[in-house]
């Protein structure tokens, strides 16, 4: 398994990946992921943030994107992450989230946020380890597939405050940051 930046040659595999995901997981991506035109435009458009896929052979097994927020929040990037259900629990989510953090910092974003369902243990664990902390709790903010109301947590990572934390996960080195 390797993590690579999304390029045009991976778009068909990415569309297959999205097509196979349970509907509930697709809601985390917040974009028209089943529309081929939309997905192909991601691979050619130039923008801050970035998109990466985990690949195994010809197949995509995970996806992560950093999307800058509009207007006066364009220094903030929102992370959207999803791993194929059959590939979960083996560290792929962690690796994709780490890649997103490195890419976002390299492209100059100074704050990152991610929305997770409050009781989503794996997501809270992996973002917590990358220096994200809870910044907002939105009560009854989403409905799950059975129509039940769920709380949504917004986790945030302030880049300038957390160089020490990034150092501890080896990210500062990767970015060529000054030691200390
Ligand atoms: C959240 C998600 C991306 C995690 O992907 P993953 O590949 O399973 O993640 P990892 O294997 O890197 O696991 C990360 C941590 O989660 C925890 N974890 C993983 N699987 C778990 C499970 N079945 N039960 C409890 N905790 C689990 C572990 O603490 C793990 O840390 P470890 O490496 O120390 O064991 C995946 O569950 C997913 O796609 N969920 C749906 C979309 C979503 O919620 N996205 C996040 C918000 S955008």
**Over all CA atoms, what is the radius of gyration?**
16 Å
Q: Give the overall pLDDT as a whole number.
A: 88
Instruction: Report the structural category.
Output: alpha+beta
What number of domains?
A: 1
**CATH homologous superfamily title:** Gcn5-related N-acetyltransferase (GNAT)
Compressed to H and E, one letter per element, the order equals EHHHEEEHEHEEHH
Query: How many strand units?
Result: 7
Which ranges are low-confidence, i.e. pLDDT below 50, for 5 or more consecutive residues? none
> Helix proportion of residues, in percent?
25-40%
Ligands (ions, cofactors included)? coenzyme A
Label the overall shape. Answer: globular
CATH fold-type name: Aminopeptidase
Provide the β-strand percentage band. Answer: 25-35%
- Supply the CATH class: Alpha Beta
């Amino acid at each position: 398994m390797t993590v690579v930046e999304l390029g045009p040659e991976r778009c068909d595999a990415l569309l297959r990946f999205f097509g196979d995901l349970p509907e509930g997981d697709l809601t985390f991506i917040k974009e028209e992921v089943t529309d081929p035109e939309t997905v192909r435009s991601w691979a050619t458009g130039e923008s801050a943030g970035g998109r990466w896929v985990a690949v195994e052979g010809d197949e995509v097994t995970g996806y992560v994107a950093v999307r800058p927020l509009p207007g006066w929040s364009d220094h903030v990037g929102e992370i959207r992450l999803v791993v194929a259900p059959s590939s979960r629990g083996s560290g792929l989510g962690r690796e994709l989230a780490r890649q997103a953090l490195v890419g976002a910092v390299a492209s100059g974003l100074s704050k990152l946020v991610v929305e997770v369902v409050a009781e989503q243990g794996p997501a809270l664990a992996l973002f917590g380890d990358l220096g994200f902390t809870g910044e907002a709790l939105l009560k009854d903010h989403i409905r799950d597939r059975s129509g039940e109301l769920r709380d949504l947590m917004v986790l945030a990572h302030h880049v300038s405050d957390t160089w020490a934390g990034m150092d501890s996960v080896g990210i500062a080195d990767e970015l060529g940051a000054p030691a200390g």
